Amino acid sequence: MVEVLFNGHAGRLEGRYHQSSRPDAPVALILHPHPQYGGTMNNKVVYSLFSCFKDLGFSVLRFNFRSVGRSQGQFEDGPGELSDATIALDWLQHQNPDARQCWIAGYSFGAWIALQLLMRRPDINNFIAVSPPANEKDFSFLAPCPTSGLIVQGGADEIDNPQQVAALARRLNMQRNISVDFAMIEEGDHMYNNHLVDLYKVTGNYVLDVLSRKTPAKKKRGRRRKADAEEEKLLLETADGDSADIEDDSDF
Prior knowledge:
alpha/beta; Rossmann fold
């Protein structure tokens, strides 16, 4: 994992990047929670998502939205952060021109931005939305939702209403030609305290399931080798219950 800096529309953006050893490895962009409530790319949930994709062989980028950390610019509560995410995805894809799939993942505010980016980028194959703020933000723009994905929610979330998030997932699943999985981590609070490993496993198993299917024709890569899938599944099944290994780069 290396520190990277790239130019956004409001100035420099700071990120952390893991490059897969495989030229055709899929890529994933991870978006962090609300900047004005302490959200950064080093948030524990964000780092858990980053680690999961990295461990499954992806090239992965997480970065700070404008005004956070060493990223320049001013917070815009949506438009500016969506612009930052667009630039970050462009940078990630430029580093990986042969990537066979492109994923977007976000947590809380970052999930809201991720799903907006999904609507603008037909090159995104799948999404992970963790605790999308369905009780605070308007998600009506997902009409129709352009691709399948996973929504994860904590059942004991004190900030995002679990029932409203579940209703969002049901509403998206009513649309044709997509499938939105919904996973409730029953005792998980908004920060997934003591449940980061659960989040890691739920996310990883979903990603493995999607990757085991035939790759979209536009990516022209076919199925993964069975040995690769079995090795990755074992990795997830044997993750221990101590979340320290997936938190060691976290500050929030």
